[in-house]
Amino acid sequence: MDGTTHGPDDARMAAGPGEAVGRAVTRLEDPPLVRGRGLFAADVNFPRQIHMRVVRAELAHGLLRSVDATAARALPGVVAVWTSADVAEIPSIPFRATKVQGLEPYCQPVLARDRVRYVGEPIAAVFAEDAYLAEDAADLVAVDIEPLPAVLDAAAPPAEFAPGLHTEPTIVRKGFGDVDAAFAMAHAVIELDLSVGRHSGVPLETRGAIARYDAARDLLELHGAAKKQHWNRDEIARLLGRPPSSVHLFEGHVGGGFGVRGELYPEDLLACAAALRLDRPVKWIEDRRENFLATNHSRQQRHRIRAAVDAEGRLLAIDDVFFHDQGAYVRTHGARVVDLAAGMLPGPYRLPAYRVAGHFRLTNKTPAATYRAPGRYETTFVRERLMDAIATRLAIDPIELRRRNLVATAEMPYPRPLDVLGSDVVLDSGDYAKLLDQALDRFGWKALRESIAARRASGECVGAGLAFFVEKSGLGPSDGVRITVDHTGTVELVSGAASVGQGVDTVLAQICAEALGVGYSGIRVVRGRTDRIEFGNGAHASRVTVMSGSATWQAAQAVRAMALETAAPLLQLSPEVLTIRDGIVQRKDGATEPSMTLAEIARQMGPNSPAMRGRTPGLTAEKWFWSDHMTYPYGVHCALVCIDRGTGAVKVERYLVANDIGRAINPMLVEGQIAGGFAQGLGGALYEEFRYDETGQPLSTTFADYLIPTATEMPALDVLIAEDAPSPLNPLGIKGAGEGGTNAVGAAIAAAVDDALGQPGAVTTLPILPGTVMRLLDRAAP
Amino acid sequence: MDGTTHGPDDARMAAGPGEAVGRAVTRLEDPPLVRGRGLFAADVNFPRQIHMRVVRAELAHGLLRSVDATAARALPGVVAVWTSADVAEIPSIPFRATKVQGLEPYCQPVLARDRVRYVGEPIAAVFAEDAYLAEDAADLVAVDIEPLPAVLDAAAPPAEFAPGLHTEPTIVRKGFGDVDAAFAMAHAVIELDLSVGRHSGVPLETRGAIARYDAARDLLELHGAAKKQHWNRDEIARLLGRPPSSVHLFEGHVGGGFGVRGELYPEDLLACAAALRLDRPVKWIEDRRENFLATNHSRQQRHRIRAAVDAEGRLLAIDDVFFHDQGAYVRTHGARVVDLAAGMLPGPYRLPAYRVAGHFRLTNKTPAATYRAPGRYETTFVRERLMDAIATRLAIDPIELRRRNLVATAEMPYPRPLDVLGSDVVLDSGDYAKLLDQALDRFGWKALRESIAARRASGECVGAGLAFFVEKSGLGPSDGVRITVDHTGTVELVSGAASVGQGVDTVLAQICAEALGVGYSGIRVVRGRTDRIEFGNGAHASRVTVMSGSATWQAAQAVRAMALETAAPLLQLSPEVLTIRDGIVQRKDGATEPSMTLAEIARQMGPNSPAMRGRTPGLTAEKWFWSDHMTYPYGVHCALVCIDRGTGAVKVERYLVANDIGRAINPMLVEGQIAGGFAQGLGGALYEEFRYDETGQPLSTTFADYLIPTATEMPALDVLIAEDAPSPLNPLGIKGAGEGGTNAVGAAIAAAVDDALGQPGAVTTLPILPGTVMRLLDRAAP
After folding, report:
1. What is the rounded CA–CA span in Å between residue A234 and residue A272?
2. Less Cβ around it within 10 Å: N or C end of chain A?
3. What tens digit of pLDDT does each residue of A447-487 get?
4. φ/ψ (deg, to 5) at B622
5. Which Gene3D superfamilies did the record assign (chains A, B) (predicted)?
6. Complex ipTM, two decimals?
């Protein structure tokens, strides 16, 4: 990875305004990780803990006739075996996001009741003295299922979904403008049938849940939490009939989240309920096969999309009907992916009319939910395929075609009569055309076309493609941060955010350091634990840096103002002439005297300081940042691929992600995000797919069958971080950087493969598997 | 126990104003305790923990020539053995209270350096895989000490204290008025030489320290904390060179505190340092012998006191010189007991002139500090002995004599030109004479005298005595409480207070319930952990109910006001017509509609509620109560004793504690406090004494030698809780109730023993041991 690397830098001593934000400082998170002192779920242990093993359905669909745990219960060392009757009082897991009326019956019970709906569905839970015993005992649980036909095609006719499945298929509709009129007057109509395969985040660390009940304090603790601790706390409390303040969730290190980890799953509730009822700490660590079967899948959609265009290739309307394969249950997201897909499909283009119908369909597969760039990876593929097809049909250069349709800077902020995640879509800022130029320049597009021509002449099957994307980030409405300076001058920042490895601590510390005038490395960032702050939103939707970062900025500014106000009279100076550098209040003009440290100020503001009489003591502030609208980062992906004519394997030789994120708090971390995101996009484009046989048996339950890209598959990745369009919606101009690396990979590689094959529109399905490529090569053969 | 028992009562459903405070509701603390789910220090365990054993000095005084840990280190399973060289960088434990210049060199190092100063002083620490191994290994540590003479008499001439001990004896002086003139003009001068023995709190649960370092979060945890968590956190952090926010202390259940538990001791620091350095959780549980040798002793003082009186027995002046036997080191209290003794000696009496010199003396015994009613148990004994002696000398009835000298209600608030704990003594309120009358009436004094006469006539050796005391409580300057109502309507109260078993949770919940209008039993009280609130004062000096209780009142009032303000516009009513009952905002006039629950209001005030834009969300308030002056509860103790002429044993037959505490939040808990406090006072009066032989070897290191009163020794105890003199210094009129049961026991029993023996002034020393009584009986024998 090269790119706009600012180079690792040490801002520990650099502590004045303007010296922390924007620098590629080393991560606060790393010391325990590089010293082998990470605390992943499996590292959490408590005395007297027992181990949970989940007995899972081995059929995709059937009536659950009986579950006989007699033999399992008789095994020495087995503490308990639970079936659905044992957890009958625990309601199904509700959805927290994008609630669609009518889906409630399809929420998942913690253990299957009368019917199993996918291979891997929890049927029973075994609790035993060790994990091996638990697994052995689970094998002794006799499950009798009467098989039923499995529904596996989300685009199948609705009749196939009854009985007992999804009897009232749900359709999410959005749109604006007169689509029918646009199609009626169109110069051309281009129609495609495109599919994205079923894949998902497969974190290095599988899920884990270690629940412990502290009877003395009446506290239920769940360790191994991630992503949405506060919401999960509230729901665990509600589902188990406890006050929220009697439940606390703790996030340790997280070995990859990607959207799938940290949702509320049946296993979390089982572990918590067992810790309460069996009065022993309960540990559950997901094995890899379970991770493939039980953790949220994502992506699988089929789009039948049509575009109406004028003679210059300008979009007049898009009409999209798509089928979202949700799997067997509606999980915590509700219909969020469908909502995102429908709302984000138009991307960066001016679009007068739009109609979309997203069919939310339940099938007999593992339930699906959000995975990095949810709904956007799919629809960027669909939209950009469509743009390429329009270009082909009208014989316009695909780059030129895009240029004609891009929303112009002068049109920003650009409201689009759509809503997504309950928020009106207003593209907040952007210079799309400029970034396109920069990307083409950076990728050396012109020279590349020449080099491709030369290589083709020598018989190579090479091609290049690009795709434009618009991301969304910074979902509101609010986020709060509390910053406290103690009597030693140490700064503690408490946030309800979570971290799934992306460097939240470092970024928040940099923002705090910048605003407060202290070194970033001494700041203690506390997050991922519900006992330290009343509210929190975790880490999702590329919102942490925007929302928690902006709240951090405000809280640090407030602490700064308090410090200056307290110090000024003691220094006999006006607050206006003072600043804070390296934790020392001093004159702005550079004079080192008089001065006062933050530690001294904090002591002045201590609980026994007469000055604090009638006030709340402490050099501390909690501030909340509010936002009505999301911010919209955007970017361009460029791919150069080479196809092996003998195997059909697609090799990505070079790749560029150009991404305007408004303001890069730490460019090194942004690059890391983009590189990791790209790898996941690459997996979905070429390798990763959860496949099922015709009975609904999963075929991808090991890394031998579910292929994730490795270092070998990673191309030379170039990252262009642009800051040309700061968001006007927050004080630092931040837009989220978590998903731009993933978003357009399928789209760009598809275009490059088309180009290499010399068959525009050839790629209609992701992943682009060698077999497909071989067939396309054969088709092209003379 | 009978008395003004209000009877256990259930206020769970009674939740309106006036229905929670003052009722004898059952304790919130009890469910885990009565179900065997208490969490005492020994119950805390962590995986991979190692056990610490402390090698202690076996000589009272000597030069430490060498410590050879070779054999101990070689024992399989021993992880480390530390001597002073291993902890050279850890400073001595500082004092937090009543700092006296010049005492700093006598603070205790965590391990003895060049000299040992008392039997039991830590010399080395052994860390091993289990507690038995650690103890075996400790036995293998070879300690070579060159013996030196031990100093054991605090009243010995100063020359005896050098060398290497306390070379500059410290004298705490207080006083007012012209003492010499008063003595010059006195009708009579009465002089006594009185001693109180060395005893202390011996909690059922010995101390414990379980330290754990969480490297992933860079958090050092200390479990088994008590009393002063926040101060101890700050000092542990400072002494170990860490930021305070990286250290957290956790109090579990505490099996008795009494002032001695929860101070910062060498073992706490050793466990913390080892957890950090050895990278294993470290568990230390004090054994009983260690508890006798290592935990703070208290009380031992000798007073040479003189009173100048007029012909009517009115006090003109008191002149006291006393010697406080501090033991070998100055611990966290500094010279607090001496300060308290000097400042509180005058008690309830009008005193024109006063001079006191408290000699703070270091001896080769276990260090001493505060123990329930510190300085007051001693000086009430001294002062009341003095009053009895004056009565005898002037042939005035001792009750009448007291009456003549009591400060009158009309004189309240009564400033006394003294300070104690850095705060000016102003007796805030009281009707001393009334309580004396009530006590005499309740005890049936007149009838009792007749019954005593009758019993004496039949040969019994019986007598009655009484003593008056003034306590102090509610030490300021400030205390804060945070109260939050969550979206389910559950109330959480977070306090920096600690609980050593006295029922803090219940009392704070009652006050919160009363102010807020909710049931007390659903309130979750969180305290005793430094991670939930930034500042705290723990539990000491009978201050929790006064200070934290008043802060609770204010915070709950603030939450109530917020709730009414939020609800009023939604209910289309003015806040003035609204009240809260059972957690429901409703009309004061009793109409049940319209209404709104606190849960609904909290949801209205949630972080995503548009109404909270620009505000800090949450139905929550943190309030701080400030106080410049202490409150002064007071009381009368009456004792009836019967002496066994054959053994000299004193049996207390009946006992009354009459105590005006301003306002009893929960009379049942106050009675419990008084009963427990009385038992400890009884121990000090008749049974408990740490004795040493002439070389400084302790003779009382088991319960066979150190006698604590059991149920057999407990008399029929009557408790009269008076609320005639609410404190004007806080909103509920509260005065502390923690120490009044202890304060005057020695004094009252001494008077009763005198009376039984028919020898006024015979008792000059506590405890009143059978041998002494036998000698007195012999002296009286014809």
Report:
1. 13
2. C
3. 999 999 999 999 999 999 999 999 999 998 999 999 999 99
4. -110, 125
5. Aldehyde oxidase/xanthine dehydrogenase, a/b hammerhead, Aldehyde oxidase/xanthine dehydrogenase, molybdopterin binding domain
6. 0.94
